[in-house]
Q: What sequence folds into this?
C-alpha cells in the first residue's frame, strides 16, 4: 500500500490548523510542516495533534524567504522521509471532505500514477 505525506508551510494558523489536520488524518501517514515564524502557538498545536493521534511527523522552523523557496524546502524535507511515497500539499485553511463511501486504504492500495488531482 502506498503512503502519503502531508506537506505544508504555515505561519500563525492556530485558528484553522487543527481542523485541517483532522480532515487529512484518514489519508496521511506522515506530516511534515515547515513553520515560517508563528507566534500564536501553531507549532504546539501541531505537535500536540501528532502526539494525540499517534501520527509520525515533524515541525521544522525555517524563516520565510518567499513562497517558492519555502514550498521547495518543505518538499525537499519530505523527500528525505524514506517511508513516504506521495506528497499531499494543502494550505492550513483547507479542509478535506471525503465522500462517505471513500475508503482510504483501498485508494492507497490502488495508487499507481505519479500525480493525483483532488477536487
A:
Amino acid at each position: 500500500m502506498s503512503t502519503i505525506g502531508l506537506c505544508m508551510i504555515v505561519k500563525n494558523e492556530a485558528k484553522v490548523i487543527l481542523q485541517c489536520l483532522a480532515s487529512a488524518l484518514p489519508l496521511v501517514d506522515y506530516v511534515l510542516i515547515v513553520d515560517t515564524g508563528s507566534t500564536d502557538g501553531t507549532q504546539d498545536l501541531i505537535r500536540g495533534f501528532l502526539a494525540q493521534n499517534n501520527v509520525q511527523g515533524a515541525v521544522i522552523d525555517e524563516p520565510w524567504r518567499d513562497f517558492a523557496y519555502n514550498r521547495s524546502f518543505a518538499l525537499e524535507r519530505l523527500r528525505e522521509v524514506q517511508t513516504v511515497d506521495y506528497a499531499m500539499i494543502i494550505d492550513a485553511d483547507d479542509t478535506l471532505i471525503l465522500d462517505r463511501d471513500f475508503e482510504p486504504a483501498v485508494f492507497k492500495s490502488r495508487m499507481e500514477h505519479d500525480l493525483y488531482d483532488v477536487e
Notes: The longest helix spans residues 67-79. The radius of gyration is 14 Å. The chain has a mean pLDDT of 96. Residues 29 and 44 are 20 Å apart (CA to CA).
